[in-house]
Amino acid sequence: MAFGLDYVAGPPIADMHAAGVSFVCRYLSEVNAQTVLKILTAGEAKMLSEAGIAIVSNYEWYATRPLEGSAAGAGDGHIAAQQHADCGGPDGRPIYFSVDFDMTASEEAAVAAYFKGVASVIGLPRTGAYGSAPALKYLFDNKLITWGWQTYAWSGGEWEARAHIQQYQNGVVLAGHSVDYDRATVADFGQWKVGGGTMIPQGWTDDGHTLRSPNTVPIVLGMRDFVLSHSWDKDNWALAPESSMAQLEASNKELGAGSQQVFRWTMLAYTPERGVFVEWIGVELSYLRAQYASLWNAYQKLQAAPAPQPAAAPADPRVAQYAAKLAAVNLLLTQAQQAAAL
């Protein structure tokens, strides 16, 4: 589980290395006198990337901004996409937009409109949200976001299972700087590095078209691009080439068809609607194990049940006909014998 920070002004790189920081969540925002001090710059992004610290893009202006609806979301989407690109962020990487307040049911419609506005600019596959467990649940359930970064605040001790990042402690002092502690719950949580499109895992080979893990299994096209841009673990080898699937996940029928490539501890999938994305291999494994257990129990019960007796063969109708004729002949014979005795 990767450890990260979010902050307005960060500690020195050496102190982050000493603390084991592997990523930081950094602000994008409308530029004004209040926000300019916290916004990620191209120079900072380059410095972090060269130090091996990944970046997560987070747009936040003021807390209640998402209550201002679709036009606000679209405007923020344009600003966020431009600042992300200006800092070296890859086109396909997500941006988390903050819902930094205790969202109520009466505010859901306005927040939904805001995120529809965001997605109309950067696309749903790149749209993420920062917020409480209830806020993320609402946004995920209504298919308004693809990425989630949850804060423990306003969450009542609950964690939204679909969140990619968890902010679990605020206001920690690290090397004289106030920071928040974050942890990634999955391998891909939207992180990026400047120039990260050519990060070939150690021991792998790439000829510009085909990437190969040490077992020589090929990884091509979008799967290749995804691996090269996501700080891929060198030991997470591909187990088989990409293949077409009529159903990507048995546990999630809504995904439908697509192509899939299985790795040692994850699965990548591609659909035209979502592009390349990480599948929830733990959910799929749990579902398949439950299905196997159910089928095995049914099999065991069949094995324990008494063997069914073979059904009697249906009677030949000619037998009855012959029996009737024989009875009639016997009757006539009896009558003839009785007559002869008179």
Question: What is the secondary structure topology, with strand pairs?
Answer:
Blueprint: E1 3-7, H1 13-19, E2 23-28, H2 42-50, E3 54-59, H3 69-86, E4 95-98, H4 108-122, E5 127-131, H5 133-141, E6 147-151, E7 165-174, E8 177-184, E9 205-206, E10 210-212, E11 218-220, H6 221-228, E12 243-245, E13 258-262, E14 267-271, E15 275-279, H7 281-304, H8 317-341
Helix pairs in contact: 3-4
Going across the biggest sheet, name each strand in turn: 1-2-3-4-5-6-7-8
**Helix-and-strand structural type:** alpha/beta
Q: And the CATH topology of the largest domain?
A: TIM Barrel
Main β sheet profile: 8 strands, mixed, barrel
If you had to describe this structure to a student in words, what would you say it looks like?
This protein has 342 residues and is an alpha/beta fold. The chain folds into two domains: 3-194, TIM Barrel (Alpha-Beta Barrel); 197-284, no CATH class. The protein is 34% helix and 22% strand. The protein contains eight helices and 15 strands. The chain has helices at residues 13-19, 42-50, 69-86, 108-122, 133-141, 221-228, 281-304, 317-341, and strands spanning 3-7, 23-28, 54-59, 95-98, 127-131, 147-151, 165-174, 177-184, 205-206, 210-212, 218-220, 243-245, 258-262, 267-271, 275-279. The strands form three sheets. It has an eight-stranded mixed beta barrel, surrounded by four helices. A hairpin with a 2-residue loop joins strand 7 (165-174) and strand 8. Helix 3 crosses helix 4. The radius of gyration is 33 Å and the shape is elongated. The N and C termini lie far apart (113 Å). The model has no long low-confidence stretch (mean pLDDT 89).
